[in-house]
Write a structure and sequence with these properties.
Elements (H helix, E strand, L loop, with lengths): L1 E6 L5 E9 L6 E5 L12 E2 L4 E9 L3 E8 L2 E3 L6 E5 L4 E7 L1
Antiparallel strand pairs: 1-2, 2-5, 3-6, 4-5, 6-7, 6-9, 8-9
């Protein structure tokens, strides 16, 4: 898994690219604070090499809890900036600092 951040000079936005290796998966989405944990509109595209990838514009100077939804199962990214316990989920969420 990988996270790439590209800060824009003209806007307070960061282009964040999420990459998830999941050859056997049918669907992968990234859900978090930035999209109200809704997988609609946050599906990653499956590439020929079996990796899922997607880029999203996120407002700068914030931190966001997120997880991947891989065929209905929540997965954290080991490349996250840190992790945050979530009482509602009863698990840790990955956190990205922008």
């Amino acid at each position: 898994m990988a996270i790439k951040k590209q800060y824009l000079k003209t806007k307070p936005v960061c282009k964040v690219t999420f990459t998830v290796p999941a050859e056997d998966a049918k669907k992968v989405a990234v859900v978090g604070d930035f999209n109200n944990w809704n997988p609609k509109g946050s599906l990653l595209k499956k590439l020929k090499n079996g990796t899922f990838k997607g880029t999203f514009d996120l407002p700068s100077e914030s931190s966001y809890e997120f997880r991947y939804l891989v065929d209905g199962a929540y997965v954290n990214d080991e490349a996250a900036d840190r992790y945050q316990w979530n009482d509602f989920a009863g698990a840790e969420n990955a956190v990205i600092e922008i």
